[in-house]
Amino acid sequence: MKGEDGKYSICQVENANSRGEIYACIKSLDLYNAKNMPYDSGNWVVVGLMKGDTLFSFPYTILRIFLFALLVSLVLGAIAAGIISRRITKPITKLAEKVRNFDFTRKIKLERTGLEELDLLSQAVEISNQNLLDSTLKMSHIMDLVGIPIGAFEYSPEGGEVQVTKQIFGLLNLPEEDGGRLYVDNEAFWARLDEVRKNPEPEERDVYRDGETERWIRISMSQHQGNSLGIIEDVTADMTEKRRIQYERDHDSLTRIYNREAFRKCAEEKLRQQKEIGTAAMVMMDLDGLKKVNDRLGHEYGDLYIKETAVCMMKIPKEHTVVGRRSGDEFFMLLYGYENREALHEQIKSFFDTLDRHPIVLPDGEQLPIRISAGVAWVEEEAYTFGKLVGRADAAMYMAKNSGRGKVVEYGGG
Hints:
Radius of gyration: 55 Å
Structural class: alpha+beta
Strand content: 15-25%
CATH superfamily of the largest domain: Reverse transcriptase/Diguanylate cyclase domain
CATH class of the largest domain: Alpha Beta
Largest sheet: 6 strands, antiparallel
Low-confidence stretches: none
Number of strands: 16
Helix content: 40-55%
Shape: rod-shaped
Number of domains: 3
């Protein structure tokens, strides 16, 4: 015997002839309660023998049943978990795919899944999308209420389109999409913007002349967290008014040619371009007999005498002249861009020929020719400033008036 169990007196039998393990259970017997009985000194026991396979068959069966039940439970649990997981994850995946591929520039309508949490999430996405669209529409309505032709846009490098207010379509002459969609294709938007910015307005900040719509547009842009934000405003009314004011400031009200100050600025600008000015001269002119016209016929014909002179001056090619009215009966011209003095002489002669072809017609049919005395000062190294040129031309003009009027005299002094 070995490995006796002290509680149940079970032990394994050694040296048994049986192939399998044999276990024995030993139980003492008290057969004789009285002494002095035959065999009362002996120790009687009962020994039970059983093969190990038989002894442990029941617990082994229970263990196998338990393991089988555990395996079946795990398999059934995994199948059930897969089914439940698929039922939950499939609508989640489907919802995520729809949200990822959905055009958020349009109103979103997501299908309901029957799962309360997912349906609440879908509803939140729809509300967020609607709020985004509403915010853009509200901004457009606010701009309409202001009454200013202005629009706003935002471009994010992560997206493929530019979000705009509805005014942008009219300002940039872009086609509107059906359904009031407030987004523009990225490439089309920037191509149109670049086209407008090819024509900046001189002396104006961020103002451009749009040849397609014949308007002036101001474009203001800034960067915010990597996004491009911008305002586009139609400033045509402001620019038109500004040009009108500038025109009235720079032009003589009677003749519509440059006044004295505007002529000076323009002439000085040309004189600074020494390499491009070529052969040039300052010409001062005085109308002969204007006082007699006013005294004889009235200032109405005196004004006509002045205006016809300006009309003849403006017939000289604009790329070769700057013309202006100095005072009541005095005019000046800067002639430039000629190959030589002979060519410039020909231009002066052509101007006087034009004057001869444009007499003033009086009420009785009489034709009153326009007579002018003129002085010429050549643009030379020693006389390259506006003041010096005007002074020399003025001196030559008075020499012409004092020598009989109706003549052209060149300045010849130092």
